[in-house]
Write a structure and sequence with these properties.
The protein has helices at residues 43-53, 59-72, 82-94; strands at residues 30-36, 74-81, 98-103. By secondary structure, it is α+β, with helices and mostly antiparallel strands. The radius of gyration is 26 Å and the shape is elongated. The chain binds L-tyrosinamide. L-tyrosinamide is lined by residues 35-39, 41-43, 46, 66, 69-70, 97.
Length: 104
């Protein structure tokens, strides 16, 4: 007979795309945790509290943020979703610091 119909086997690249890989990306709007300066809290206490409250806060970064708040009046110490920002601000305040949150 005539020509044999030849159907190429589907290449891997021609198969149905797999479901999109799901990633752990927050859908929640970011908030800033802001540390404010004051005239009385010892610098060492500010550094210690930052390291106690904010996850993965290095000594170097805590000192730098404390100095920024001390010299400029305030410093953004963390960004995260609103509930967590509220928690960190409350914990900073319960240790005697002044902290607020605001949308990023
Ligand atoms: N200003 C304080 C002092 O001179 C130190 C300080 C720094 C306090 C940062 C609060 O968020 C702050 N002892």
């Amino acid at each position: 007979m005539g020509l044999t119909t030849y159907t190429a086997p589907a290449l891997a690249t021609e198969t149905e795309p797999r479901e999109k890989t799901r990633r752990e990306v927050s859908q929640e709007p970011p908030y800033k945790v802001i540390l404010h300066n004051d005239d009385y809290t010892p610098m060492e206490h500010v550094v210690a509290v930052l390291r106690k409250v904010i996850p993965r806060m290095s000594m170097r970064r805590a000192v730098s943020l404390m100095i920024e708040a001390h010299t400029r009046g305030k410093a953004v110490v963390h960004k995260c979703h609103k509930e967590l920002a509220e928690l960190y601000a409350e914990q900073l305040k319960s240790e005697g610091l002044t902290a607020t949150i605001e949308p990023d």
